[in-house]
Amino acid sequence: MSTDANDNGPLTTLEQAMIGQAPAASRLRVFGRYNAIAFLTGALGALAAGGPAFLHQVWAGAPADRRWFLLFPIGAIVCVWLATRLSGVMEIEDRAHARLERSRTQVFKLASLFSIDAFAGGFVVTVFMVYWFSVRFGASQEVMSAVFFAAGLLQAVSSIEASRIGARFGLLNTMVFTHLPSNILLILVPLMPTLPLAIAVLLLRFVLSQMDVPTRQAYIAAMVDPEERTAAAATTNTARYVARPFGPLVGTALMHSVALGAPWVVAGTLKSVYDLLLWRTFKKVPLPE
């Protein structure tokens, strides 16, 4: 189970398998909208995260912070209701094969590379960033809620733009050459001397950092045969989910034993290595028409 804006554990695999059935000409655009909606509603959630602190300032008897977690089961019930209203045409047509066959080698290579990216991403999860800005600059919960609200809006816009850029320059080019500069910006965040500059660099990073998400999903759907899409999504997503939890463990160790800003630098470096390896491995691999 997950509370990330656009990663929902096993459900992500099923959603991507269903959306991957979209016609090739519109698939990237559909994935872009799919992620944009996730980032947009995630931004509203980030803004709402500052709500309890604000309420306590104007209403002393407001519920304790932990009681707000009761909103999660309410949201889950709404999601179940929405799922029951999906049309039957969303069902995978060909369920005869549940294994990777023709694309096994390429998917395993992608999964290995994605695990590097996810591991590095675990260094700079949202809770770390909030903590770092609080310790480094004394940023309040309300300020960081506003920052991640703005970040979610930027990610939503970039997801839509990614479909246009990907259609013009190619999926792999968009994945690598938007993600690589975002990782350089990630390294620069702890080097900023003031809170406004650090926030500005972080938001600029968010403009680029998630453009690879819809393009990555569309790339996988295009690379494999239709009957392999569920298995391909499951394999690559599982690699990400297995690797990512180790990131916070290593990041915390770096923060305490090396420097407070070390997770930013190591994460940006590892993610840059991932981009270069991805480009080197797949730049000559043709996608099916």
Question: What do you see in this structure?
Answer:
- With 289 residues, the protein is an all-alpha fold.
- It has 13 helices and no strands.
- α1 (10-19) runs antiparallel to α11, α2 runs antiparallel to α7 (141-169) and α5 packs antiparallel against α13 (262-282).
- The mean pLDDT is 88.
Any key phrases for this structure?
289 residues; mainly alpha; globular
The number of helical elements comes to: 13
Helix content: over 70%
Q: Any idea what the radius of gyration is? A: 20 Å
Give me the strand/helix succession. HHHHHHHHHHHHH
Question: What is the residue-mean pLDDT, rounded to a whole number?
Answer: 88
Largest sheet features? none
Shape: globular
Low-confidence regions = none
| Number of E-type strands | 0
Strand content: under 5%
Give me the secondary-structure category: mainly alpha
Distance between the termini: 36 Å
